[in-house]
Amino acid sequence: MISKILVPTDGSAKAQKAALYAVDLAKQLKADVVILSVIEERSFIAQTAPASKTTRQNAVPIEDYLKEAAEGYAGAVKKLCDKSGVPSAISIKKGHPVVTIVKEARKSRANLIVMGSHGRSALSATVLGSVSYGVIHHDKSVPVLIVRG
Q: Domains of the chain by range and CATH?
């Protein structure tokens, strides 16, 4: 039985489509949703975000900028859950997306991961690096439902 669904989001149209699907499924199954947004540590190479890209209109440390963006992505999915009456929680983590998604699925005891995909071929995903492809092949203990864009 599915009682908890993990929904990783990066704010992309593909992730939003998967979130809509996950929230609808959770409502039908009376399941909880755990919303995960991962701040990729490789992004910390730069020191500041440009003032034109921040809501505060001044240069901020890139980590703060990325955290603010991740909270916004997760917050948008939380609003979907609230609107549908689906219990939800937000988790913002730092790390490699594939490893972090799998760890969070285990930690939160999710019965299902629902995530979006760009629909690349297996070869393309291997060469270019697809998060959904990595999650599917990294750990086989939690089922993964891929919603193609």
A: 4-148 (3.40.50.620)
